[in-house]
Design brief:
CATH topology of the largest domain: Cytidine Deaminase, domain 2
Number of helices: 5
CATH superfamily of the largest domain: AICAR transformylase, duplication domain
Number of domains: 2
Order of helices and strands: HHHEHEHE
Low-confidence stretches: none
Shape: elongated
């Protein structure tokens, strides 16, 4: 990805900007007055075909979390990024729904039983 990011952009801001840039909400980061917060020049939006081709290259992606996945929409979003394997703590009251969502997309999920995320 040769996006013309500002040299001092934080990694989290860069990653979130990429996520929005490749989504249908790309104008949230490409509109006048917005793109200047992230880029040195305004990149062209990706076509639907370019997006599909880029995502299709992401295979065998693994996702790990030090907390549990409380909702199936987390899995839905992961699937859109090519995730095929998930390791997570488990222990949500909605684990059954998360498992069903993984099964829907043939995503392998393992419960580690280790929760490192604390409030």
């Amino acid at each position: 990805m040769n996006l013309p990011f500002l040299p001092n952009i934080r990694r989290a801001d860069r990653d979130n900007t990429i996520d929005i840039y490749i989504s249908d909400d790309y104008m949230d980061v490409l509109a006048d007055g917005e793109w200047q917060k992230f880029f040195t020049e305004q990149p062209a939006p990706l076509s639907r075909e370019e997006k599909k081709a880029w995502i299709a290259k992401n295979t065998g992606v693994a996702l790990g979390s030090d907390a549990f996945f409380p909702f199936g929409d987390n899995v839905e979003r992961a699937h859109k990024s090519g995730v095929q394997y998930i390791a997570q703590a488990g222990g949500s009251v909605r684990d059954d729904h998360v498992i069903m969502t993984c099964d829907k997309y043939n995503i392998a999920m393992a419960f580690t039983g280790v929760r490192l995320f604390h409030h």
